[in-house]
Amino acid sequence: MDAVLVAGGAGYIGSYMCKLLADKGYLPVVLDDFSMGHRQATRWGVVVEARIADQDALETLFARYPIAAVMHFAAFAYVGESVTRPDKYYENNVAQTIGLLGFLARRCTVPPFIFSSTCATYGEPESIPIAEDHPQRPINPYGRSKRMVEQILDDFSMAHGLRSVVLRYFNAAGADPEGQVGEDHRPETHLIPLVLQTALGRRASVDVYGDDYPTADGTCVRDYIHIHDLAQAHLLALEKLRDGFAGGSYNLGNGNGYSVLDVIETARRVTGKPIAVNRCPRRQGDPAALVGASEKAVAQLGWQQRFNDLEQIIATAWRWHRTHPDGYAD
Q: For residue 171, what are the contacts with CB-CB under 8 A and spacing of at least 6?
């Protein structure tokens, strides 16, 4: 059985990726230090607790398992924290990745690499929807750290023949349709789980930051993409790379923009709960709209979305939050 090394496989998207890999007949090999992930989410494959640049751990894993590819989800992703703690983000997101890539480059056969990137590499959008040829001018250390890794992957391709696919996510959302994997960040900053926690009575209200943007209802517009569809794109990239594909960079977005109030109103319909709102001033650095163009992934990877409707996305998340009101209780 071929194995896939999943760096950050205890996290929100990485853990669901492990489930799909196992379903496809791969052995997921999770490498995670559990600084952000959850042990209860690692239900598929084997798990090694270590940082992703730990050379001894990598030597052991590659000696023990037939690792055919590497998927990298192991990044810190709080934009605000990245501004106050840039050292933490550059060390984890960039330096640790360099350590992992350096190990891979020293092997006789360099395995293909799939990198979880972000639309934050684009910065303030010049046009909507955002396509892959949009200028990349990130405006915070988180986005810059992801952009740096993309550039490093290009350099490793030239120097070592590393073939990689970069997948730039818009707003990851939703939960495993079978209810085994869901969203549990600590602290939680994503809109949909905050709205659903309010519906569950775990919060008094959900904060809405700014209602005077140049959008239809004055609140920010974002592109929400279901984790199942994100993971499916990784599987497609994996198969293409294993067939000799040279690699490339792709947006993963829904192509539809939903405002903050759209999300709240949809959640009211799905949950049947009132969901109180607390209106707050704008947050610095929040663009009015971020919507992605994903035609390139459709054309070149054969990507098709299963959950492209906001009500579907929220419904899967609601099922998980109702059965896991405390998240992963580890």
A: 190, 191, 222, 223, 224, 225, 290
